[in-house]
Amino acid sequence: MRDGPVRSVAIVGGGTAGWMAAAALARNFAADRVAVTVIESPEIGTVGVGEATIPPILQFNALLGIDEDELVRRTQATYKLGIEFRDWGAIGERYFHPFGRYGADLGGVAFHHHWLRTREGAWSEYSLPAVAASEGKFARPSDDPRNVLSNISYALQFDAALYADFLRELAIGQGVQHVQGRVVDVRLDGETGFVEDLKLADGRVCRADLYIDCSGFRGMLIEQALETGYVDWSHWLPMDRAIAVPTPAIEAPTPYTRATAGSAGWRWRIPLQHRTGNGHVYASGFIGEDEATAQLLAALDAPALAEPRHLRFTTGRRRLSWNRNVVALGLASGFIEPLESTSIHLIQRGIATLMSLFPSNGFAAPEIDLYNSLMRSEIEAVRDFVILHYKLTRRDDSPFWRHTRAMAVPDSLAQRLAIFDNLGRLILDPSELFREPSWLAVLLGQGAMPRGHDPLADGLPEDAVRAQLQRMRAVIRQGAAVLPSHADFLSGVRAAS
Ligand code: FAD
């Protein structure tokens, strides 16, 4: 291990990951304590997608001192109450994965057991964000926990390039050095294998104590130099290609992302203020590029604004996220696939975990090991949740869906599904990102009705429970009715500049 405090950090990559890391480091450490440099190559460019987020991004932005309204204006953002899934359980079906909870627990028993017992009303009617989203409404949550509007939780849909620009400005304003150039060589210490320095194409040399690899899928430091290895999850998540194409902005942008299942993948639609992001994520083992492109173009609501962009990836994670004096963040550390918009969140988690284990006193194996095991748990929990969507399908109209229906899933997921199938119980680890409402949205949304409910729910008289559930639905309906339209809310924020 290398002794001595880390006084300098070099971040390779100026995509979302690189600038998120730079802005957070600059915020946490005075420039004279830890010098931060971002090296990026304009000729290589960024992946340029990554428009949909999940609620914790708001905390990250707040910690950086970002004014949310300003961010919404600068990144052409819209608000997101969840994801609409079309054609996943079966063709013609739809369900909504909302941010926020369903109903309210009764008699100390989780709400969904009362619903499973009575089947009173539709499941989605117990979620305020789901009802609001279906009506194109949006408002920020109320601070008063007694107000039904406190049940709203939201995220943003933004232009990823503009978000990186915003963070770059912030980071540079706080003393981060910005170097434009291509890293062509990574020199390792012959004894320790630690990264010694980086050589740029123009001959400059960059040296730091800690290196953060944000170089995207190529993993310039973590893989090309350190040969850390990759854990491939293609057998569970066979998506390996994506096509992205923008269309004009929708007049009344929906406060949600749409994910429509196709014959060998799914298509996204993300409405922003200045354009709509569209894409097709697909498994090349089941569909060719021409057919995948044709499916995407045929499904667009409006003419494309640019030629389709093609991307390739392998789902999985780097064997270690932190190896020697290199921490990989973003696509360099792994990629699940964008179905539940989790990539940017995992960057955020990586940064927060690095901050809490920062090698201020030199590199120590216990801290590095802990970082790796924490990040591994985070990404594996997300992996299981994403696999769930494919495993639960009842579609059999194409070889792809027949494959995902029949495939074996990780033991952790198989066990959870078996427990849910019995009495509808969900026992999650407290550290998991996706909580009970998210699992229930997908399980019940795709028709995985358990055989029973927790008998504890039978302790309350059924008539009284039904009456309570009817009241909950009425309160949610009334709550949604008073919300402004998403378009009006957005206009208010834009006009307030
Ligand atoms: P990149 O954007 O690829 O940036 C890499 C950087 O490294 C660039 O600045 C490049 O110039 C630099 N670089 C590379 N090599 C060198 C070198 N040799 N020298 C100097 N610089 C170098 N995430 C979400 O959270 N929500 C979504 O909705 C979402 N949708 C996605 C859809 C698709 C199809 C894909 C593929 C990803 C999606 N993601 C999404 C993931 C998201 O795009 C990434 O997590 C995010 O953009 C971070 O990327 P990055 O910064 O790690 O890499």
TrEMBL record:
<feature type="binding site">
    <location>
        <position position="331"/>
    </location>
    <ligand>
        <name>FAD</name>
    </ligand>
</feature>
<dbReference type="InterPro" id="IPR033856">
    <property type="entry name" value="Trp_halogen"/>
</dbReference>
<dbReference type="InterPro" id="IPR006905">
    <property type="entry name" value="Flavin_halogenase"/>
</dbReference>
<keyword id="KW-0285">Flavoprotein</keyword>
<feature type="active site">
    <location>
        <position position="80"/>
    </location>
</feature>
<keyword id="KW-0547">Nucleotide-binding</keyword>
<dbReference type="InterPro" id="IPR050816">
    <property type="entry name" value="Flavin-dep_Halogenase_NPB"/>
</dbReference>
<dbReference type="GO" id="GO:0004497">
    <property type="term" value="F:monooxygenase activity"/>
</dbReference>
<feature type="binding site">
    <location>
        <position position="344"/>
    </location>
    <ligand>
        <name>FAD</name>
    </ligand>
</feature>
<protein>
    <submittedName>
        <fullName>Tryptophan 7-halogenase</fullName>
    </submittedName>
</protein>
<dbReference type="GO" id="GO:0000166">
    <property type="term" value="F:nucleotide binding"/>
</dbReference>
<feature type="binding site">
    <location>
        <begin position="14"/>
        <end position="17"/>
    </location>
    <ligand>
        <name>FAD</name>
    </ligand>
</feature>
<keyword id="KW-0274">FAD</keyword>
<feature type="binding site">
    <location>
        <position position="80"/>
    </location>
    <ligand>
        <name>7-chloro-L-tryptophan</name>
    </ligand>
</feature>
<dbReference type="InterPro" id="IPR036188">
    <property type="entry name" value="FAD/NAD-bd_sf"/>
</dbReference>
<feature type="binding site">
    <location>
        <position position="340"/>
    </location>
    <ligand>
        <name>L-tryptophan</name>
    </ligand>
</feature>
<feature type="binding site">
    <location>
        <position position="183"/>
    </location>
    <ligand>
        <name>FAD</name>
    </ligand>
</feature>
<dbReference type="Pfam" id="PF04820">
    <property type="entry name" value="Trp_halogenase"/>
</dbReference>
